[in-house]
Write a structure and sequence with these properties.
By secondary structure, the chain is mostly beta strands. The protein has two helices and eleven strands. The strands form two sheets. The chain has a six-stranded antiparallel beta sheet, with no helix packed on it. A five-stranded antiparallel beta sheet has the order 5-9-6-7-8, with no helix packed on it.
Length: 148
C-alpha cells in the first residue's frame, strides 16, 4: 500500500495527559491520544488531514514554512517545512502561498494514525481503510467499525 503524496510523519511523546510533538509543541492528549499509554509514538497523517488555519478549537497547531505551492486545478498541494520535517497539505481550491511564508498547519487529534515504537498501528480514525484492506463493499466499511 502507498500514499501519494507520502504519509506525513511527526514524533510524539505522551506523558501525564499531554503530548509533546517533536520540535516542542505541547498539547492535551485528546482524541486518539487519550487512550494511549505514556511513551514515544510516531504520528502519521495524510495530506488531506493537514489543515491550514488558526484558532480551531480542539486542534493542534504548528507553525510551518511554505517551500512551494502546486496548484492542480481544483486543489493546491502546499509543501511545508517544520523543524527539518517536510509535510504536504492538500487543500481544496486555489491557494497561492509564497515560499518562505509561515502559516499554521493544524491537526485534528481524532483524524490521524498513531504507530508505536515497533511501527505497529495502535490508533486510527474510525473509518480509515478502504475495501482493499478489509474486504467487503465501500458502503459496508463506511458504516461499520473494524477492530484494530
Amino acid at each position: 500500500m502507498f500514499s501519494d503524496p507520502p504519509l506525513n510523519i511527526v514524533g510524539i511523546e505522551k506523558k501525564n495527559g499531554s503530548v509533546q510533538y517533536a520540535g516542542g509543541i505541547q498539547a492535551p492528549a485528546s482524541g486518539l491520544y487519550a487512550s494511549l499509554a505514556d511513551g514515544p509514538y510516531r504520528v502519521g497523517f495524510r495530506a488531506h488531514q493537514l489543515e491550514v488555519a488558526n484558532g480551531i478549537a480542539g486542534r493542534h497547531a504548528f507553525q510551518a514554512t511554505v517551500t512551494v505551492t502546486e496548484i492542480t486545478g481544483s486543489e493546491s498541494f502546499v509543501h511545508l517545512n517544520r523543524d527539518a520535517s517536510n509535510w504536504v497539505a492538500v487543500l481544496q481550491g486555489v491557494h497561492e502561498y509564497e515560499p518562505g511564508y509561515v502559516l499554521d498547519a493544524v491537526l485534528d487529534p481524532d483524524n490521524l494514525f498513531v504507530f508505536d515504537a515497533a511501527d505497529r498501528l495502535v490508533a486510527a480514525p474510525r473509518v480509515a481503510f478502504s475495501s482493499e484492506v478489509f474486504g467487503g463493499s465501500h458502503e459496508e466499511n463506511a458504516s461499520t467499525t473494524k477492530a484494530m
